[in-house]
Amino acid sequence: MASAQQLIGLVKSHAEGDSGRFYDLAMQLSAAEEQKGHTRLAEQLRQWANAGQAPSALATPTAIAAPRGDLAQFLLASYPSERLSSVILPTHIGDELAHIVVETRMREKLEEKGLKPRRRILLSGPPGTGKTLSAHSLAGELQFPLFSVMLHGLITKFMGETAQKLKLVFDAIKSTRGVYLFDEIDALAAARGDGNDVGEARRVLNSFLQFLDEDTGPSIVIATTNLAEILDRAVLRRFDLVLSYELPDAASIREALERRLIGFSISRLSWEKVIDCALGLSTADVVAAAEDAARRAVLGDRISITTLDLVSSLERRRSLQGLGRGGDAKESTSFCAKKSRSATPVPVQRRGRRKATE
Ligand SMILES: Nc1ncnc2c1ncn2[C@@H]1O[C@H](COP(=O)(O)OP(=O)(O)OP(=O)(O)O)[C@@H](O)[C@H]1O
Ligand SMILES: [Mg+2]
Questions:
Q1: Ligand with minimal distance to 283 CA
Q2: Across the chain, which distance is largest between two alpha carbons, in Å?
Q3: 119-161 tens-digit pLDDT
Q4: All domains in the chain, ordered by first residue
Q5: Residue of 87, 122, 132 with the most ligand 1 atoms within 8 Å of its CB, for mutation
Q6: Distances (CA, A) of 113 to 108, 117, 247
C-alpha cells in the first residue's frame, strides 16, 4: 500500500493542478507496487497516470508517413506495441530506461530550469540480451514511432555518399520526433579496420559523431553494439547514457521461462536443474528453448511442461551455441543433470522488481 505521505502528495499535487508532480508520484507508486509483485495494480496505476497527462505533454503518435525517397531505403518506420515491462532487465537498467521515459515526458519542466532530458543512449552487450527489444519498448512506452536505421545498407549502397545520407537521417531526427535506432553501430567502428573501407567508414563515423553532437531535437537516438570495447572514448562520450546488458541471471531466466510458458502447467518443474542448464545462454535462447518445449508439449497433447522437456530444449540451444556438450536429448539431459549435481546450487529467487524512479 502507498504510504500516507505518498497519498497526501498525490492528492495535493492533483488539487494544485501540478500534473507533472502527480504523474511522477503515480509512477513511483506503480513502481513500488510492481516491486511487491502486484503487477496488475502497477499496470493500472501506470495507465491512469498516463491517461491523466495533458495531451500536449503525453506523446501522441506523430503523424508520419513512411520515409520517402532515399530515406525509405535505409529508414524503417514502425509503431512498436512493446512496453518496458516486456523486457526482463536488471533493476538498475530498468530504472534508467524508466527514467528516460519520465525525462522525455517532462522535457518542458526540465528546460524551464536549463536542463535537458537525456536522449542519446548506447546499449551494449552480448547478442540476444534485449537491446533491440529495449529500443522498441522505449518507443512503445512513449508512443513514439520507431525508426530503424539500416546502417549496413547505408554504408554499402551509398559508398562515397554515406555521410550525406546520414545527414538526411539526422534531418529526420530533428524534424520528426521518434526513437531512432542505429542497431549494431560497431559496423562503423569495425569497418575502420577493413582495408577498402577505411576512409569511408571513418568519414561516416566522424559524421555520425558530429551529427550526434549537433542534434538538440526532441527525438531519442539509441545505438546498440555487441562490441562496446571497440568503440573508442570519442564515441562513448557522445552518449548521455551507456548501459551494459549482460546474460540473464537465475532470476531473469526463471522469469523469462515463466512468462513464455503462461498457459502451460509448470508447477512441477525442478527450477534448480532447469536454471542450471540455462545459465550461460542469452534470454533470446532461453525464450526459444521455452517455445521449443511448448511446441513439443502441444504436439504431444500435453499442457504440462516437464523438467526433461525444458532441459532437453535448453541443451539443444547450448549445443547450437557451442556451449557444453550437445547431442541427443538423452545425452543432453545427463550432461545438464551432471552439471547441476556438481554445480553449487543456484539460489532461485524471484527478481527484485523495479524500484521507484526517483
Ligand atoms: N531482456 C529480455 N527480456 C525479454 N525478452 C528478451 C530479452 N532479451 C532477449 N529477449 C527475447 O529475445 C529476442 C531477441 O532479443 P533482442 O533482439 O532484443 O536481442 P539483442 O540484444 O538486440 O541481440 P543482438 O545483439 O543480437 O542484436 C526478443 O525479441 C525477445 O523475445
Ligand atoms: Mg539487436
A1: 1
A2: 67
A3: 999 999 999 999 999 999 999 999 999 999 987 777 777 767 7
A4: 1-58 (no CATH), 61-244 (3.40.50.300), 250-342 (1.10.8)
A5: 132
A6: 9, 11, 39
